[in-house]
């Protein structure tokens, strides 16, 4: 649920997610929003607390938190609480982002285990390459080796590991999985696999309307920098969505869009508040037509966010998270 539920809005997705065993996210303020929705189940802070004061919120809201460094253990040791905490001890098994190295992991565990502030210790690590050929083997091996005889629950898999290693033994998969992007219908390993290959449906649709139409003659250009030149007579639709809405400015001519649910393409540069799309040959397309930048059109056709992300040189995750606050969000409970 981190990053405001990958840009969808925690409050918007909550009903759809409430069958989950728990929620994981980053900021204590987001945890508070989930508690305010009435959720009494587990909430895990994936990066743990950012300062000693966050521990008070953990006590008050009963939040589980990752422990990835010595400072966080120091804060816990100094924390006054009636309610001992459940913590997830994070191992750096090779990603070299957060966590204790395998060499230091067991001494961190021993320190935590001796604290009256700590109730239960679980074990977690995060894969750097679950989405690609390099895979999870070496990280999984070091995690299993280091935690083998330690008592507690385990959490290791992200979406890519869940999807790509279906035959992983249950004991290796762990007690908790941390699926993110798959919940929202993005493929973690695009373009090797598409959302459709994995049977994932898009949760988010970004759509707008054609608010202007231009008829071009050969040689006419479109938009800032005249980046597109018509080679034959064309109709261009001007769409009320630009980079200030979160549509990536790096998308160039040819990036797919759906016009009235039919595939077409972006032409010319993305502006702050508008894009321009090719209407030529799309029956009925004109002023007021629905344009789908990603997600599902009214006729059911789908434009995967991953295709648009690739055209922008990024990943679907970033596009989801970057939809701007000015974009009105409509929740469709179908
Ligand atoms: C974001 C995140 C996940 C989920 O990753 P996806 O690729 O979206 O499934 C899992 N674990 C941690 C620690 C994360 O930060």
From TrEMBL:
Organism classification: Bacteria, Pseudomonadati, Pseudomonadota, Betaproteobacteria, Burkholderiales
Record keywords, A-Z: Isomerase, Pyridoxal phosphate
Residues holding substrate: 97, 272
MF GO annotations: alanine racemase activity
Pfam families, per the entry: Ala_racemase_C (PF00842), Ala_racemase_N (PF01168)
Pathway(s) served: Amino-acid biosynthesis; D-alanine biosynthesis; D-alanine from L-alanine: step 1/1
UniProt family annotation: Belongs to the alanine racemase family.
Organism: Comamonas odontotermitis
Task performed by this protein: Catalyzes the interconversion of L-alanine and D-alanine. May also act on other amino acids.
SUPFAM superfamilies: Alanine racemase C-terminal domain-like, PLP-binding barrel
Cofactor: pyridoxal 5'-phosphate
This enzyme's EC code(s): 5.1.1.1
UniProt name for this protein: Alanine racemase
């Amino acid at each position: 649920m981190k990053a405001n539920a990958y840009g969808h809005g925690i409050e918007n997705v909550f009903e759809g997610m409430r069958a989950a065993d728990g929620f994981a996210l980053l900021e204590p303020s987001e945890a508070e929003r989930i508690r305010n929705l009435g959720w009494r189940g587990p909430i895990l802070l994936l990066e743990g607390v950012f300062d000693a004061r966050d521990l008070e919120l953990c006590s008050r809201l009963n939040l589980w938190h990752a422990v990835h460094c010595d400072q966080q253990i120091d804060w816990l040791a100094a924390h006054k609480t009636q309610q001992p905490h459940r913590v997830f001890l994070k191992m750096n098994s090779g990603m070299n982002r957060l966590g204790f190295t395998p060499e230091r992991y067991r001494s961190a565990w021993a320190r935590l285990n001796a604290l009256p502030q700590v109730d239960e210790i679980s074990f977690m690590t995060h894969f750097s390459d679950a989405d690609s050929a390099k895979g999870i083997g070496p990280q999984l091996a070091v995690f299993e080796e280091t935690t083998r005889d330690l008592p507690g629950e385990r959490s290791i898999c992200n979406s890519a590991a869940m999807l790509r290693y279906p035959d992983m033994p249950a004991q290796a998969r762990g007690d908790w999985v941390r699926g993110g992007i798959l919940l929202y219908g993005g493929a973690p390993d695009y373009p090797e696999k598409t959302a459709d290959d994995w049977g994932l449906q898009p949760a988010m649709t970004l759509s707008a309307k054609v608010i202007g139409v231009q008829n071009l003659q050969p040689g006419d250009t479109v938009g800032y920098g005249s980046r597109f030149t018509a080679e034959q007579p064309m109709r261009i639709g001007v769409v009320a969505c630009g980079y200030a809405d979160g549509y990536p400015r790096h998308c160039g001519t040819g990036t797919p869009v759906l016009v009235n649910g039919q595939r077409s393409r972006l032409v010319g540069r993305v502006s702050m508040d508008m894009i321009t799309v090719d209407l030529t040959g799309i029956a009925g397309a004109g002023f007021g037509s629905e344009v789908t930048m990603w997600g599902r059109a009214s006729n059911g056709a789908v434009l995967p966010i991953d295709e648009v992300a690739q055209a922008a040189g990024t990943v679907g995750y970033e596009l989801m998270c970057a939809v701007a606050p000015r974009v009105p969000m409509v929740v469709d409970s179908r």
